[in-house]
Amino acid sequence: MEEKPGQTMRWFSKIEVWLMLGVIVYLVVRLLAQDPQSGAPT
Asked: What is the distance between the alpha carbons of residues 41 and 10, in angstroms, rounded to a whole number?
């Protein structure tokens, strides 16, 4: 069972993309939840 570096790189890039998206969403949600008074007129 030999692992090809190409496939590993693809998986890493996919995981990195999803991690970045998750972190961004998490930060945005936290910021929105932290200061509801700080100018969010809905």
From this structure: 42
Read off the pTM: 0.49
Q: How far apart are CA 17 and CA 27, in angstroms?
A: 15
Token pair of 41, please?
Answer: 């007129």
- Integer Cα distance of 40 and 38 in angstroms: 6
DSSP letter string, 5-22? HHHHHHHHHHHHHHHHHH
Give pLDDT tens digits for 1-42. Answer: 566 666 666 666 788 889 999 999 999 999 988 866 665 555
Q: Are 13 and 5 in contact (CB under 8 A)?
A: no
